[in-house]
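Bumping with the actual sequence this time:
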Amino acid sequence: MPYSFRLTATIPASPQDIYETWLDSLGHSEMTGGEATMSDELGAEVSAWDGYISGRNLELIPGERIVQSWRTEEFDDEHEDSIVTIVLTEVDDGTLLTLEHSNVPDEQRSYEEGGWQSNYFEPMVAYFESRQPQAAAPRRQAPRPKARRASPKTAAKPPATGARKTKRRVPAAPKRAAPRTKTASRTSKGKGKAGGKAAAASRARARPRIRRSSRRGRK
């Protein structure tokens, strides 16, 4: 007797991304790891896991709901197709995927007991996590060098410049020549001239005057 069960999983992607990936042949293949042929057309035939699963699209609501008929290679001719209903609900961590698998043959319990988790939910989580952009690591700022405290000796010095300053030498003031003093010879020379004239005058006065006799008296 067929039975039904329900499973849930949180997938780190938006409902629309999951909807489009599930119904895309390449996306479904990369998501599960097995070759798939999918379509977003209502009534189109689909397959997954290298043909192990086959079915048809029964109901499609973009970003919300996917209903497909599923039949595995383990189904006998007497078994009707099972029905897979996927409901996508947006949550804080991504999308809550609610899967209801109905009309499953009673002897095929592996789908509920880990088949969906290992073949779909876990690979889907890894697939969508790998597609998320990596958050850039915050740039660490280089520590600022600590300012060195100048010692009293170095603090008094002016900052060095490109050219080395040389001590400017101030030229010494020229020596002023001492004023010449009047020599005694110059003074005495002047006095000698005046004294010489006075002496000559006195000598002339002292000389006796010789009166010349006139020639007329001699005759």
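The tokens above came from a reply further down the thread. Confidence is low (pLDDT under 50) at residues 183-194, 212-219.
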